[in-house]
Structure formats: C-alpha cells, structure tokens
Amino acid sequence: MVNPPGHTSRDGHQWTPKAGLVAGLPTLGTIKPQSKLRSADTIYDVAIIGGGYTGLTASRDLATSGHKTLLIEARDRIGGRSWSSNIDGYPFEMGGTWVHWTQPFIWRELFRYNLLGENLEVSMSHEGGINKCIVRPFKDRPAIFLEKEQEDKISESAIKKLVDVDGQLGRTVIPLPHDALRNKEAVAIFDKMSLGDRLSEIEHELSPLERNMVEGFLSITCGGQWHDSSFFELLRWWALSNWDYKGFMEMGLTYKLRCGQSGLQRCIFDEAVMSNNLDYSFSTPVATIHDQQNLVEITGRNGEKFRARSVICTVPLNVLHTIQFSPELLPLKKQASVEGHANHVVKCHVEVAKPSLRSLGTFNYPYGKLTYAFGDGTTPSGNTHLVAFGSSLPGVHLQPEENVQETLDAWKGLLPDTKEEDIKRVVFHNWHKDEFAQGAWEWFKPNQVSKYLDALRERQGNVWFGSADWAQGWRGFLDGGIEDGQRVAKEVADHLKTREIKVKL
Amino acid sequence: MVNPPGHTSRDGHQWTPKAGLVAGLPTLGTIKPQSKLRSADTIYDVAIIGGGYTGLTASRDLATSGHKTLLIEARDRIGGRSWSSNIDGYPFEMGGTWVHWTQPFIWRELFRYNLLGENLEVSMSHEGGINKCIVRPFKDRPAIFLEKEQEDKISESAIKKLVDVDGQLGRTVIPLPHDALRNKEAVAIFDKMSLGDRLSEIEHELSPLERNMVEGFLSITCGGQWHDSSFFELLRWWALSNWDYKGFMEMGLTYKLRCGQSGLQRCIFDEAVMSNNLDYSFSTPVATIHDQQNLVEITGRNGEKFRARSVICTVPLNVLHTIQFSPELLPLKKQASVEGHANHVVKCHVEVAKPSLRSLGTFNYPYGKLTYAFGDGTTPSGNTHLVAFGSSLPGVHLQPEENVQETLDAWKGLLPDTKEEDIKRVVFHNWHKDEFAQGAWEWFKPNQVSKYLDALRERQGNVWFGSADWAQGWRGFLDGGIEDGQRVAKEVADHLKTREIKVKL
C-alpha cells in the first residue's frame, strides 16, 4: 500500500442509532494525499479522466508500460460506481459487488493480485436460520413464505418464459455473448422491445407468483421502469450466463470479495503508482476538454489545467454531457448521454441483530420502497448484514438520505419480526442523486444499443472513451469496466507508438 | 508483424499423394531470423526458457513493462505444444485448439488483439451431409449410426454417471473450479482414483453403447491409459465446464480461431518485440541452468551462454528433468518430471474430397489406431478437414510418421466409403515422440496432484517455473498456459522491483 488506507470518503451515508445519519464512509479507496503532480508544465503521454475500474485499468496498463500517465478523478476516492466501505474490517459494497470466473477480465485481475482462494466468499446463504424466501404479491394479503426449492422453481420457470423468444432460450438471438450484435436481424427485433413489451407478451403464461417474482427480480437488475428498459440487455446478460438459470444467479449475485471491491482497486492503483509513471489529482471534477490536435488541455472546475498528448475519458454515460468538449462531443455521443440509460436504483445495506435472517431472501415489488433483499454476510459483531435495492417506480423511488426514518421503515416492512432497536446500522450510496454517476450501472433504454453503442466506443481526435457502460461483454458489470479499460489503454499505447515512429521518421 | 510470416518449421509432418510424407510444416509461428541478441556480455533482467503460451505471455508482460528480457526457445518457432500450420491460408491446429469465453486468460488475449468477432469459428458441424455419429463398439459387428440427438443423449448420460460421485454431479468435490484443492478431504479421495477405478465402480450402470462412447471420449481427453490417468483431473475439467454436459462440449471442443493459434501467438510475440526490450534465440535447446545467487547462467546445448538476474523456466513437465540444474532441481519437481504425466495422444488431421463428411463424428475405441474423429472445417479447395486423436493403448499406439500407410489405413477405417484417392492430405505432429514435449497436454497420473502440484509451482532461488502443466484453473489447456505465464511474470517483476529498492537503500 502506498499510504495507510482506511480514510473516510465524502461518498455514501451511514445511519446508526447513536450517531443518526452521517454523510461519508470509511474506505480503503480514499487516496491521501489527494494529489501527486510533477511540474505544472508537464505534458503527459495520457491523461485519464475517472478512476473507476476502466480508468484504473487504463492507468495501470499505461503507467507500467512506461507512459507518463495522469489520473484525474472528481471524487476523493478510486472506484467510481463500485467501492466498498470498510467498517470494522467488514466490507459493505456500495455498488458493483459480485464476481465470477466466467467474467474474464476481473477474474484475471483477482488472479494477478492473489485475491482468489479464501478471499472469495458467498453472499446468499441457505443454511440455518429462517432459510425462506418471502414474497408479497398482494398489498393487503399476508406474505407468502417459500422454501429455497420452491423459490428456485418459480423463479427459473418465470425467467425461462421471459427469455425463451426462440424455443432455444434465446441462444439463436445471441449465439456468442461477447459479440452480442452479430445476429443483426435478431438484435433489431429485441433492441426495440422494452421489458414492459416482453412482459405483456407473456403475461398470460405467468402465474401471479411467477409474475411477481420475475418483476421483483427485474426491478433490481435493470433498476429502471419497464417501458424504459431494453429487453435486449436482459437477453445479453442471460447469454453471458450460459443461457441457464443457475448460471444467471451464480454469475450475477453469488461470489464477492472478502477484501471488498476497494481492496482489489487498491491493488491496481498501487501497482500503477509503484511504476513511478503515475501522477494523480483527486477531488478534481473536470469542466472542459479541449483537443488542440497535438495536445489536449483539460480544465478542472476550479481552474486547474492539465496537458496531455492523449486523453481517456471514462466519465459515465449519464454524466458525459456535463463536460464541455471542444471540438464538441460527437452528436450521437451527446444525444446518448443526454437521454441517459435507465438504471436509477439505490442500493441499501442494513445490519440487524438477528442472525436468523442470514438465510432470508425477500421480494417486495411493486409496493415497497425496497423491492428485493437478501442476507449478504455476518458482521464482526455477529449481526446479519442484508443488502437491498430500492424501487425506481415513481412514488416509491427511495431517496434514503432525504428521509432516513422512511428507510428504516422500509427495512422493518421487509424483515420479519424486526423492530427498530434490532437495526444496528444502515449504509447506502444514492447513485441516483450522485452528481458524478447520475444513475447506477448501465441498463440501456429500448433502441439505444442499435443507435448509440458503436458511437459511444468511438475515438474522437486525441480523446478515447472507455466505460463499463459501453463494454462489449459484461456491459454494466465490473468485468465490463476492466474490459473497456484495457481496450482503450491498448489503443492509446498503439497510437502513441505509431506517433513516436512517425516523429522519428 | 516483425518479419514476413509463413516460414516452414521443422516441426510436424505432411503427407500428400504427390509428395508423400514430408517433415516440416509452414506456420506463422516460425521466427526469422532466428535470433536477435545484444552484446554477449548483456545481463538480462529475466531470461525466459520456452516460447509456448506461458513463455510468450511472460515475455510480453515483462518486456512491455520495461524489463530487459530474453526468450530462449529450443524449436524454430513460438507456440510450444500449441501451434497451427497454415496451409494455403487454412490453419490446421497441431496441438491446443479450442477456446471459450469462460477461459478468462486466453479470452482477454483474444480481446486485446481484436481477434474475436468473425475470427471465432465453430469446429463441429451438424448441418447437411452425413450428419451422423458412427460408433464401433464391437470389433466384428457393423458400426452403429447415431443421430446428433441420440449421440448427445447417450454421451450426456454416460458422462453424468461418471462424474456424479456426490449426487450433485461433483459440485461438492470442487465447488470453486479455479481453486480445485479447497475441499481437501474430497481431493484426497478422488486424486487417488484412476479413470479405470472409476469406470469399474460404475460399469454396471453403463449400457454397452454408453461405455463405448464415454471410453472413446476419455481416451482422447486424458490421452493416456485408464490405470495411469487421474479421475480428479476429469472432475476438475467438469467443474470448470460449469458441471454441465453442454458446457463440457462447448468449452472444450467447439470454438477455434480462424487465424490459428499461431496467429494469436504472433500478436503476443510481436507486441513484446515492439517494446524494444525483447531479445530472443530460437533453435537453442537449453542444457544447463546454473543459479549463482546474484546471477543465473544458462548454457545451450551448443555451448551458447546467457546471463540473467532471474529465469522463468516454462519447459513442460515431461521434459524438465532433461535440463541440468545447479543447484539441483528440488526433489519433488525432479521426481514429478521423471514420472511424467499420462498424456501421450497424437493428433492427426486429414483433408478428404468428401464434403458430406463435414458433419461426421466417429468413435473407434478401443480397436482403432485413431479413436475419435470429427469434421473440423472446410479447406480452401472445398474439401472436408477432419481431426482425429490416436489411441494410446499398447499395441495400437499410433506413430503416424513411422508408417504412413498405417495412418492412411486408419483414416480409411474411420471414414465411411472413403478410398485412398479421396485422401488429399494428412497433417500431424507426434507429441509423444517430440523431444521438447515428450507427451501432449497435461493429464496427471493418480496421486500426482496431491504430491507434486504445489512443488511444481514453487520458485527455486532465482528460477521461477511456469507452465499450463501446473496451472490452477484450466490446467492442461491453452488458458492455463497464459494464466501461469502472467503469474510468474508478475512474481518476477515484483521480485526485481524489491531487489532494486534494496540495492538503492
């Protein structure tokens, strides 16, 4: 570690009975001091805007291969939309959480830093305690308690009905999941469709319980509203999961890191720093990017200026349009960013003095402010940690910091026989209200894949654009961020090499 | 490309009606000129012995991160036990062939060099033509013709009986496939078992057809004899395949590269060369490795001498003991190498003027010299290319170059209604007789995993050991080679960094 980790970030909130609601959370991801810069007239080989997985991967790849690299980050920490708050040595994942060995890019990183083996642990538990899934399909009727086997049976049946558009569980639509646009005819059909369109198509095939559970599940995977969320993105995720229910659950929601995402991010960042080729400036939101052909000038909101031969912009889709580019952002990039993707979900953790809830899963769609929750771990004090996702439906869209009592009530409504004094801690990050994210992980709206994906990946002069939001494989996942980070890093390295050879000639 | 590709390697053999049997094959992997070396007194940061995937990955990772790197290779080409012969622009894969997106390390490389998309193609075809699987369980009875659905049904049923040691298809034995030794008790039980032991346990459960097909399949996956091949290694491969028959076939035998493995290898090698930090010496078999504490001296069989601060030895398990180490190779490493792994299969390609055979699959165990074959592609002349694997059973162990007529006869015996004049080309590499491989891909013998795996991965002084033969995940696969190459490269880079810091202090 370059400096002692464990500083408090401005991001996120914590509520405890004693302290009430407090902004900011401790994390391994806060970098102190916040900047390390050479002389002001330095011209960097590359400046990377944004220190999420994409920016970190690009920074590491370019700095360790000998490029004078600058990382500029708006926040006081690395990680972007995935980071963990480390409370008493226990990580609460504030954004992207789960990893799997079928996610090639993040798996390689875990292996690289020796973070496999005992560092991998399982979120959901089905042992001891309540060991039930609670479903509340009807507002005024009692909740239904399902055994694990029943839950899986109903969920699997419902999800298969949803994705089975071709009698082959979607295989013909996306035969190669990392090259999802290959079957152009099929993409054209399913990219137009919203999740709402597809749910209408199959509604007569779904039992009330099936419908309720699949909707509950979808509400937290797309994090948006049915009419506004592309069905194609679900088919893609399903294909990446081996067209299989078990794969879907295991690859998306099962294995997490004992060291937390910030632990892995710290390894990537520290390797870059150790190369002596990385400068950085945190708490530096970028205002303008001015590409002057041989040089790009970046100006921070507080007037800081940086110069580089090339720039990698990893600012999320929903935020891109807030930066002033000159020459202007390509029209399709701009339009995509102004429209934004659909996902505005809020993730919320609770610590409750009820060990029996470790094996609880619960759906609470569409009436609850928290729509889906499950036991995620046991804290050092022996309490159960559960993770939930908030509803994005109008009227019940949870903004936990605005009314923390409402959040506590939402948890109480979700957890059986739980009183307020059982709640020891609530931890969350409101991605919807976060100015540097303006949403959670990518879930495109209908038609956006066809219309914008290629344009979003396009280079513009000396500026490259990388993000999990427009990755090709596990787009919207941790893995996609690393995938696109290594893509742009390689492209920039190749470009600088060619430029160097040209200059010599 | 650093130099015009497409030279002829000394490796492999080709038979055509016109030229008869000729040693050597054209490939993108032959490097000309064969060496690029600085002054004789150069002390390299690292010398890498062996230019298969492990050595190539390590060379690229270390050279691009600024280390003075030397690659020493016994052959005249890169690739080791995986390489493709490019004949009229069509690749015949002489060793490791198939790739999949669940193989994280090779998938990242394919992505890095933009070799996905149309470069990925499918081996087996089930469209048009004969579209049958032919099985010959009885020596003196006619062959049985199966439809694809029947073949899958029988194979799946047989393989599931084989792996289902726990009522959960082996999941409890290896819950985390890239950390396969985690469940120590289970490993102890199944590592002792040979494939023969397991086949005896379930023989009463298998129908004659099931037994014949599963044995045919196993004969070419382990490439050895039942009593000599570990059952644990099958359980591990099955776990990596998501404990699923479809996964098993798709991840192991389905997708290959239009550019051939040598095409991808060339990208890795060329990136290393472009860094200007890589020297190399091909056709340079190593005789001795002498670790003198601050320096390692490597001597080639022809007396060439090289010096480096650290060495990465990627020589295959079955060959390691032929190099003289001083200090001596750790006893467990030496013993493992002298014992060797079990796989001595020979891969053999045929080009036949019978387009209908593109959709043929055929088992020919235990009587045939070629035990399993299937349509693998269509050559530029419109002929069908089939790939087969030779038997490793005593008495029928195919040595194709020793009696090429026998090889032609074996093909005729395998392919329905095929006369000698239909055979336009035979291409093969006899790994069993290859002095720098002494076997094919790794398949451990019973007890070797428990006894040797940790020792094989161990560093010895300034010498690191990397190989697909002792990788942790897809051991014995292309992916495992890249995995272990990046491991040792990172370890050496960290070591050199620490050493540098110490020297400065």
Automatic annotation (TrEMBL), chains A, B:
Broad class of enzyme this protein falls into: oxidoreductase
SUPFAM superfamilies: FAD-linked reductases, C-terminal domain (SSF54373), FAD/NAD(P)-binding domain (SSF51905)
UniProt binding sites for FAD: T54, E73, A74, V286
Sequence positions that bind substrate: F389
Keywords, sorted A to Z: FAD, Flavoprotein, Oxidoreductase
Residues in Amine oxidase domain copies: 54-492
Cofactor(s) for this UniProt protein: FAD
E.C. code: 1.4.3.-
InterPro entries in the record: Amino_oxidase, FAD/NAD-bd_sf, Flavin_amine_oxidase, Flavin_MAO
Reactions this protein catalyses: a secondary aliphatic amine + O2 + H2O = a primary amine + an aldehyde + H2O2
GO molecular function: monoamine oxidase activity
Transmembrane regions listed in the UniProt entry: none
Any Pfam family the entry gives: Amino_oxidase
Superkingdom, taxonomy of origin: Eukaryota
Protein family membership: Belongs to the flavin monoamine oxidase family.
Protein name, per record: Amine oxidase
Species this chain originates from: Coniella lustricola
Organism lineage string: Eukaryota, Fungi, Dikarya, Ascomycota, Pezizomycotina
